[in-house]
Design brief:
CATH architecture of the largest domain in chain A: 2-Layer Sandwich
Strand content of chain A: 5-15%
Number of strands of chain A: 17
CATH class of chain B: Alpha Beta
CATH superfamily of chain B: Ribonuclease H-like superfamily/Ribonuclease H
Structural class of chain A: alpha+beta
Distance between the termini of chain B: 23 Å
Largest interface: A-B, 20 and 27 residues
Strand order of the largest sheet of chain B: 4-3-2-1-5-6
Number of helices of chain A: 23
Protein name (chain A): CBS domain-containing protein
CATH topology of chain B: Nucleotidyltransferase, domain 5
Number of domains of chain A: 4
CATH superfamily of the largest domain in chain A: Beta Polymerase, domain 2
GO molecular function (chain A): [protein-PII] uridylyltransferase activity
CATH architecture of chain B: 2-Layer Sandwich
Largest sheet of chain A: 5 strands, antiparallel
Order of helices and strands of chain B: HEEEHEHEHEHHHH
Structural class of chain B: alpha/beta
Oligomer: heterodimer
Keywords (chain A): CBS domain
Pfam families (chain A): CBS, cNMP_binding, DUF294, DUF294_C
Shape of chain B: globular
InterPro entries (chain A): CBS_dom (IPR000644), CBS_dom_sf (IPR046342), cNMP-bd_dom (IPR000595), cNMP-bd_dom_sf (IPR018490), Diverse_CBS-Domain (IPR051257), DUF294_put_nucleoTrafse_sb-bd (IPR018821), GlnD_Uridyltrans_N (IPR005105), NT_sf (IPR043519)
Distance between the termini of chain A: 69 Å
Chain lengths: ~650, ~220
Amino acid sequence: MSNVIVNRVAEFLKRFPPFSFLGKEDLTRVAQSVEIQFLEKGEMLFRQGEAARPHFFILKEGLIQLVENSPKGEQIREVCDEGDVFGVLALLGKRPYVLTSKVIENSLIYAIPVAVFEKILEENSRVALFFAAGFAAGQVVVRQDLSQGQKARGEFKKDSGDHSLLIFSDQSAVIFSEKVVCCSPDTAIQSAAKEMAQAQVSSIVICDENKFPVGILTDKDLRTRVLAAGISPENPVSQVMTSPVITRNKQDGFSNLYLTMIRHRLHHLVLTEDGSDQSAVCGIISDHDVFLSMGNSPAVLIHALMNTLEVVEMRKIRDRAEQMLGYYLENEVSMEFVASVMTEINDVIIRQALEIVKDQLKAVYPEMMGIRFCFLSMGSEGRAEQLLRTDLDNAILYEDVAQNLKSRAVEYFQKLGEGVVEVLLACGFDPCPGKIMASNPEWVQPLTVWKSYFTEWILHPSPEALMKVSIFFDFRSVAGSKALAEELSAHIYQEIGKKQVFLNFLALNAMKNPPPLGFFRDFVLERSGENRDQFDIKLRAMLPLTDLARLLVLSHQIVGINNTFRRFEKLAELEPANAELFSQAGKAYEILMRMRALEGMQSKSNGRFIKPRSLGKLQRQLLKNAFVPISELQEIVNIRFQLDYFRR
Amino acid sequence: MSWWEFWKPKTERLDFIRDFLEVNQDPIPSIRTISQLKFTVLDTETTGLEPAKDSILSFGAVKISDLKIQISTAVEWYPKSAHSIGKAAQIHGLVGISNQISIEEFIKKVLSYLGNSIIVGHHIGFDLEMIGKLLKPFGLEQLPNPMIDTLDLAIRLEHGPRADQRRISMGAYSLDELCKRYGIDRDDRHTAGGDAFLTAQLFIRLLKLAEKKGIRTYKELIR
């Protein structure tokens, strides 16, 4: 028996998750059981420590703060406005309330009996996920498993009617052939080619008697290694095949398989029973398969990039990569995969840029061609997590040269740096406002000078030096001699070893940006300037996490892991006691990266400033939950580096 | 001895009438606090504005107890009308409603629903007059329940207990204007259920206001 009143209640509920996930019948049942209550400013709905009521609540209108009474006084944990679900402890676990709900503006509150909802919670997986992911207000006080949040976002999205080119949406849709054309190593090249022609495939896998793969021969091999080399087609395939073969397990999941292909520049990837080449071949996946199922592919883009030295062309390809990025982000493709792909693309662009400029300078500086150097990416690109073409942060490091070559080297590498930066700008990257770029002579230096820079920053950690540290410490060799970069790393650890107190300064610096907990209607917004009423996701959420990850990784003397979420993964490994927190922090960072990139693509900016109003309720909650690990991490760092004592 | 016993019924009192009168026999203790009171907020849609000529098309109501609107109690009934369907019905889109019930069944339902609750409505006198007309054939002149008019209550709370209604602009006390003033969304105007719901939302706000003015008991509220 539904009537106007019940319908009105249902219409309101339907607008907000988790009620939006209910079918008509369940929704009516829930609406029918609602109790409506009006509280005035200053009243409390429930108090911390009180036994859970048989209801949970959704705010119809008004403003309610969830506050925690602690020895430090009253702290606002969350602010609820229209549509926020709160007081859910009654529903989940029936524990006493951990927060007090204070009415800030006159509020109309709908109370929903737990009894009615329990059954729904059991039967409706999306509703269950909503609570599991901690999307109800006040739930975040207990640290949530953010992976549930990520999962939930993916889940909830499907219903929004967004069907924009769902590449990767259904990974099983990528078809690869299970029937693999094989031959033995002593097969004549010509008969192998004949078999390929008959089966209309572009590769043949060479197997031993156990069907274990020993090599692979492709169309391209036939062209370059047989025909062009003038080898007789009577010879056995073992002479011209690529061996050993890179193999993977079919169960590895599509993104892993695909990542392998990109990293190793494979056009064909052989799949075996257990993933090693010591088991039988069970399938093969080709570029073409991937291409057909995706329409756009990193491999194709990288391939195209590597085949051009035309800057205009490179820019076009980078633009296409951004489109691809959009699909990845929208479809919750794993951030590790997305970041790897985009980093690889950016790296290839840098390498091509270097080729272009080196080629131009070759004639004028022939004596410089043999000098070892290393092109360093820093900041987010150094951490291999730059998704959008935000600020360039890079530098050049070259080996120390003999006295007589010094001035020539300075000239040459400056020109090289300038040239590369010009190409990158032309490819659509933004210049670094702090001029930390390879076009700035200060950051184009031989190893000795670089060493002295770092020594200086470590010995005299002024605020300015610490700011540089946060950019320069995440350097990564993108092109040239890796050994030089490694030497510099070794030097840095040596210097830190000599001056441990540097880490305390670094820790202090990492605490500079407190997490955005004192929300006003969800967020601390920028108060002035052109970004008024926006949320600075970079400064307030991502930077604290990057700083904390860097600090902790340095304190463990870990080399070679630059990625913030990979750093947290590593930290989880090293400190089992905090493993949970670190893995949550890593996930939080992935969520923030994704949000920032999506915002940037939407608003055609660097995505740094987010308008909370433009986010949906779920997105806002997911974002809020992502802040939680920050304060916990800061607390750990505060104690570990004795910052209370250190600040005096 | 109650007042209705002086009234001589032409027909024998029906069981449901007797039951209803019985639950209404005991008056509500005057010191009972407002949060302990049970209210029924109701509204009717009629064929017109003249009680003598017009009749009820629909009846909507919801109860308030513990100061909370209990959505589970929301009802909407459509009594069969002897009158030809008038202008109001066309406006309200009630023409051709299918789940109409007989007048007797309607009265039965209304009385058992009301019980001894306090009746609340906006301009409630009109609704009660319309309902009273239907009650007559069943040997009941008027409803014995206490009643509160949200219009009077709003004026009393905003202008004080001795306000002179003649000097107050009544336009400011229409349900529409009051909803606007108290921040209540008004989407479902002009259905009995919708208006009853709005009135209920207005009423719980007015009760808060009353509490602030020191009105805490049944006696203070009903005066």
